[in-house]
Amino acid sequence: MTRGRSASLEAPGKVNLVLRVLGRRSDGYHEIATLFQAIDLCDNVRVSVDPDASGVDLALEGPDLGPLEENLAYRAAERFCDRYGVEAGVRIELLKRIPAGGGLGGGSSDAAAVLRLLSALTGHGEGLQALAADLGSDVPFFVAGSATSLGAGRGELLTALPALPEKDVVLALPPVHVSTAWAYGRLAEVRAAVGSRDRDPGGDEALPAGAAAMFADWDGVLREAVNDFQPLVSEAFPEVARSLEGLRESGAALAMLSGSGGACFGVFDEAARAEAVAAELTGELGWPFLATRTLRAPPEPRSTD
Question: Domain spans of the chain?
């Protein structure tokens, strides 16, 4: 094990270009079919391993994310040390830029960054994906090292896809908090009210075996893009509906909810247009719109010694 070293990693956010909710599992989770896409709105994570210390320490710069023990980055370090018998002290320095609770995967990406950095610093890595899946459904995507992936199961069963060409993206960050539990519960209510049940994981609504070919380019993505949560979240949260409407009216080739929300995103062909739309909609609607881009490859750890 290499001790007394530090490394840092940009932890990217994500959007879901496809999100279909399928059958409910015996463990209470739903099966999903999703298409993850990493974006270059990133948190910064730095991890140090000190042979003369013990325990895990987290220094956070950015919005308060609640109790330390509930922070995914902190929990990732604890789980890693327990799993691999790391007795040295671990210090995490986390600079938050990705808004929490919006469906952009910031907490999961931070946890994945901690796992990747500790793996690089200690030489342990066998079973890392399983450890990631125990932390959260989105964490394996950020650990896996592909910017574009199909996700099945809870999202942890991944198929890496060839990188899509970069696109400019405008993120809408309306001032709402959409509970994931509420979103799943509301979706079940809506389906029951119209006489439909949760979709069969193996049925026609799941991504087919040849789905990778469907998403070989942006034309395929635009044809297949869907988020099952979007209609009900838009109905319940007017700010989400107004964000999506603003993106569409501004010429977005695709305007969608990410995850269960409330962040939304619009896809544009030109950076200048994306930046102009972000500024215009921020002024018009009164909440942040940010210009960013999709990634063709995720960032790699960098030694900071």
Answer: 6-161, 168-293
Ordered strands of the 168-172 beta sheet: 254-257, 264-268, 168-172, 289-293
pLDDT in tens, 77-105: 999 999 999 999 999 999 999 998 899 99
The reported pLDDT for the residue numbered 194 is 83
Phi, psi of 34 (to 5 degrees): -140, 160
Per-residue pLDDT, 198: 58
Cα angle, residue 15 at apex, residues 159 and 242 outer, rounded to 5°: 150
Euclidean distance between CA atoms 23 and 13, whole angstroms = 27
Q: What are phi and psi of 303, to 5 degrees?
A: -70, 140
For the question of residue 167 being annotated catalytic, the response is no
Could you identify the residue written with the tokens 């070919």? 213
Which CATH class name applies to 168-293?
A: alpha beta
pLDDT for the residue numbered 2:
45
Amino acid residing at 54: S
Q: Which of 43, 96, 110, 138 is catalytic?
A: 138
| pLDDT at residue number 207 | 67
**Cβ distance 250 to 275 under 8 Å?**
no
Q: Specify whether the CB–CB gap between 59 and 94 falls below 8 A.
A: yes
SS3 per-residue string spanning 258-301: CCCCCCEEEEECCHHHHHHHHHHHHHHHCCCEEEEEECCCCCCC
d(CA 267, CA 246): 12
> Whose CA is closest to 102, among 259, 248, 237?
259
**pLDDT score, position 205:** 54
**What pLDDT does residue 130 have?**
95
Low-confidence ranges of the chain (pLDDT < 70): 1-4, 64-65, 196-209
Question: Cβ(240)–Cβ(145) under 8 Å?
Answer: no
CATH of domain 6-161: 3.30.230.10
